[in-house]
Amino acid sequence: MLKQLTLFLALFIASYSLYAQQLRLNELDYFEKTGVNVLVYSNQYNGMFNDEKTAGIEMIHHGVRTVTGGAVRLQNTPEQWDLIPKVVSRNVDKATQTISVELGYKDYNFNSKISVTPKGNGVEISVFLDKPIPQELVGKAGFNLEFLPSAYFEKTYLVDGNPAIFPKYPASSTQIEPISNKIPQFNGHTTFDDRGKGEFIVPYPLATGKAIVLAPEDPERFVTIKSLDADLMLFDGRNLTQNGWFVVRSLLPANKTGKVLTWYLEPNAITNWKREPMIGFSQVGYTPSQDKVAVIELDKNDTPLTKASVFQINAEGKFIEKFKGDVKVWGKYLRYNYARFDFSSVKESGVYYIQYGNQKTNTFVIGPNVYDKIWYPTMDVWFPVQMDHMEVNEAYRIWHGAPYKDDCLQAPVNHQHFDGYVQGPTTDTKYKSLERIPNMAVGGWFDAGDFDIQTGSHNSVISSFVDTWENFKVDRDETYIDQKTRYVDIHRPDGKPDLLQQIEHGTLNLVAQCENIGHPVRGIIVPNLHQYHHLGDAINETDNLPYNPNLKPYESDGLSSGTMDDRWAFTNRSSFLDYQTAASLAEASRALRGYNNDLADRSLVCARRLFEEADEATKHPKENEDPFMKMMGKGADVNTVLQLYITTKDKKYADRFLDQIWPALDRMTGGTGRNSGFFAAFGGRSGFNQALTAIPYMDAAYKAKLKGYVLKYKEIIDNSVKGNPYGVPIITSGWGGSSQAINWSITNYFVHKAFPEIIDAEYVYKGLNYVLGCHPYSNLSFVSSVGTRSKKMAYGNNRADFTVIAGGVVPGLILLNPDFLENKDDWPFFWGENECIIDGGAWYVFLANAVEDLVKETK
C-alpha cells in the first residue's frame, strides 16, 4: 500500500509539474505560465503610425517584452510605413485553449487566419487560408515573428544546429530589386529616395533552416522555434531601418488552402521564477520636510517582507542604518502587487539608500537644495538642441548646422501626408500648391525626435515659458544665441536671460506664420518619407536651397535647386488654433516688452487680429473643417480672452472671461470620468489653470466663488488616484503619461498657492517624484541626466546612437493591453515611451521651478 501511495504521489507531482510548465489561458485572455506570457492580438496595429512594434503575437519573457509583430506580413523585414493587416475578428475559445485571429489586407482581397494553442512547453502557431494567396503576393506573404535586438545582443543562435552570434550592428547582405516588385507603402509614400533607377533594398536572411534556437546560453531569453512544413529564415531588420528587429519568417506556400503553415514556439521558463522587487523612489532625492514614500513593485507570486531600512553613507564611507520601518501592503495594480514604505521621519541631510531584504537601491540625497538645479539640463542643453534654423554648438561638438533656410512651400491640396498631416481641398491662403511662402526660415523648435514644426506645441511652450518667467523671474544665462548669424553656443553666457531668448525664438516663428501665411498653421514638415525618417544632423534633410521648378532634381544654379526637399506648410485654418495662438502671442508680448519691443508689438497685433478672425469664423463654420479641430474650438477662447485682458487691461476681455469661465468649470467638475476636472486639468493652459491664473486680476468675490469648484476638484482627484499605489494619474494609452503627471502637479501648485488649506504641497511633489523615479516598471528618472540614475536612451534625433540629449523628458510608461506597463531603456525607438517633446520639457521646467518655490515655504 505504501509503495502504491508513493507511486501515486510521484505520478501526481510529475503530472502537476508538467501542467505547471504549460501555457494556459488566464482570465485576461492571454497565455501564461511562470516566467512567460504569450499575447495574441491583445494589442492591434493602428492606421496612423502603422507598425509601432506594439501589436500582434507578443511575448513577455521573464518580465521583459522580447517578441512582437506575430502576423502575416508582406515583407521580410517590415518598416513602420509598410502595409499592416487589419484584424477582422478575434476569438478566444476557453474550451480548446485557443486564440484565433483573422487578418485582412483589403487592397489585395487577402485574408488569413492564425490560431495559437498551447502544446508541450510552448505554443503551436498555425496559419490557415480559405483561398490561395493572390498571385501578386506569392513569395511575399509570410508569417513573421520579431525579436527585440537588444534582448539578444552578445548572445548566440543555432539554425539546424549551426552556431552563430547575433550581430551587434547590422552586417548581413542585401540585394536590389526593381521598385515594381515592391509592395506599396503608406498612401503611396516611399522610404527609399529617388536617386536610384527605380530600385529598393531587400535583405538576405542571416540563416535558413527548419529549427532556430535563440540564446541557448541565457535561460531568460532561450527560445526554440520549429517549423513543421516550411523553411524558417532569420533576418536582421536593421539593414533597412535602425529600429528594425530580428525577424523569424516563413513564406506561405502558393496554391494551397487550409492549414498552410505550422510553427512550434517554445520559450524557456525558469522554474519558480519571480521578478525581482522594483523599489520606486525619487532619483533626485527629497527635502527634509517632505513626505518620503517608496513604492515596492512585486511579482504576484512574491511574498512581501514586513520591514525595510534606510541607510546613510557618511563621509568615511560607512553604512549606518538610520531608520527601519513597516512595509505596508497596498494591493494589486494591473499585473503586479504593491507595497509602500514610508520613511518620512528621515530628515537629516545626507546620502542614503533603501534596503529591502537583500536588495539595495542606488544612492539618493536628502537635503534642502535637492531641486535647485534639476531643470538646468532641459534649459541649458535640450531646448538649445531643439532650436530650428540655427547652428547649435556645444564645446567640442556641433549638434546640428543651421537647417531649413529653404522654408517653405505651400502644401498641395487634397493631400494625405504622414504623421497626421492632411491638406484639404483648399489652402486657406493666397498661395497655390507648392508655391513658395517667403520669410519663413526663422525661429521655432523641432517638435520632438523628428524635425517638423508643430504650431500647437509651440503655443504650449511659449505659454509655459511665459508662466515660468512671470511667476519665478528665472534669469539664468548659460546660452549664447545670435539670431542674425543663426548661431547658438551652449554653456556660453551672453548677458541675456535664456528664458526670454527662447520665448523670442518661438515667437519669431509664430509671428512669421501670421504675417506671411496669414494665420497659424497645423505644422511645417518635409514632403518625402525618405527625409522624414532622417537621423542625425538636421542640416542634411534638405539642400538648404529654395526649390526651383525650372531646374532638374539635384541640379542647382547656386541660389536654388530643382530638388523637391523643401518643407511644406499645412495651412488649413481652424478657429481652435487661431484662439490658441492668439493667447500665446498675447502672453509673449508681455514677456518680450522691454526686451524686444518690436516683436512684442507685432505679437500683440497678431493676437488681436487672430482673436477677431476666429470669433468671426466660429459664426460661419466651414463645412470641411476637421471635426477634431471643430470640437476643440468650442470654448477655446476662454484662455485667449484672459490673456488679452492681462496684457491689455481692456475690460471687454475680462467681461467675456467671466461670462464663460463658470459654465466651463461646471462642465469640468461635473463628474469623475475622463471629461471631469481631473482630466481637464491636464495640458498646461487647460482646466483649472485658467481660472486660477485669473485670481490676481479679479476681485475677492471671484476667488470666493472659485473656492467651491476647487473643493470639487480635490474630491475628484482624490477619488481618481485611488486606483494605483502612486497617488498620481497614470495614463494607460499608447503615449506615456509623464506630461499628464507634470500638469496635474502644476494645477495643484496653482491651487495650493491660492488655497493652501485645500491642497497641500505634497500634491505637487507627488507628480514630480513620479517622473523622477517613483513609478512602475523601473525607478529610472524620466528626465535624462537628472537624478542618480536616469534614462540612458531616448527617442531624440540622435536615437540611433543609443543615447540621450540631456534634459529631455520622456513620455514614460505605455500600457500593453491588458496589464503590462513598459518603458524600455535598452531600445530607444519606442516613441510612445521615450520620445522627448518640446511642450513636455517646458512644462517640466515650470514644475521644477514651482517646487523650488514650495521649498522656500519650509526654509
From TrEMBL:
Organism of origin: Aquipluma nitroreducens
Lineage: Bacteria, Pseudomonadati, Bacteroidota, Bacteroidia, Marinilabiliales
InterPro entries per the UniProt record, alphabetical: 6-hairpin_glycosidase_sf, 6hp_glycosidase-like_sf, Cellulase_Ig-like, Glyco_hydro_9, Ig-like_fold, Ig_E-set
Domain Cellulase Ig-like, first and last residues per copy: 276-359
Top-level taxon of the source organism: Bacteria
Keyword DNA-binding: no
UniProt entry tagged with the keyword Ribonucleoprotein: no
Signal peptide: 1-20
GO biological process: polysaccharide catabolic process
UniProt entry keywords in alphabetical sequence: Carbohydrate metabolism, Hydrolase, Polysaccharide degradation, Signal
Any one GO molecular-function label of the UniProt entry: cellulase activity
Protein name: Glycoside hydrolase, family 9
Domain Glycoside hydrolase family: 441-793
CDD domains in the cross-refs: E_set_Cellulase_N
UniProt record similarity statement: Belongs to the glycosyl hydrolase 9 (cellulase E) family.
Parts of the chain that traverse the membrane: none
